[in-house]
């Protein structure tokens, strides 16, 4: 399972930061950063989700008001949102 984070879409509400510790506030940019992620496309960052963090990652995606966070299963299907 992986997370895809569209940083360009992020509006800096930082609800994801409260739900999963992989997201960190970047107050200089006014957006969240996804630790351990690699940039896959223009401002889209991707990383694998550890099994013990799947619940937190899914919740971070659910609380994002602009749907900048997507959870993708191993078959390539989008789970959240």
UniProtKB/TrEMBL annotation:
Identification of the protein by name: Ferredoxin
Any one Pfam family match given in the protein's UniProt record, by short name: Fer4_15
PANTHER family to which the protein is assigned, alphabetical: FERREDOXIN (PTHR36923)
Molecular functions (GO terms): iron-sulfur cluster binding; metal ion binding
Gene3D superfamilies (UniProt xref): 3.30.70.20
SUPFAM superfamilies the record matches: 4Fe-4S ferredoxins
Top-level division of the source organism's lineage: Archaea
Species of provenance: Haloferax mediterranei (strain ATCC 33500 / DSM 1411 / JCM 8866 / NBRC 14739 / NCIMB 2177 / R-4) (Halobacterium mediterranei)
Keywords annotated in UniProt: Electron transport, Iron, Iron-sulfur, Metal-binding, Transport
């Amino acid at each position: 399972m992986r997370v895809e984070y569209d940083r360009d879409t992020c509006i800096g509400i930082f609800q994801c930061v409260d739900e999963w510790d992989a997201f960190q506030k970047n107050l200089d940019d006014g957006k969240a950063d996804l630790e351990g992620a690699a940039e896959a496309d223009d401002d889209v960052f991707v990383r694998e989700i550890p099994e013990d963090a799947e619940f937190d990652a899914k919740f971070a995606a659910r609380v994002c008001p602009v749907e900048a966070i997507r959870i993708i299963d191993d078959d390539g299907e989008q789970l959240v949102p």
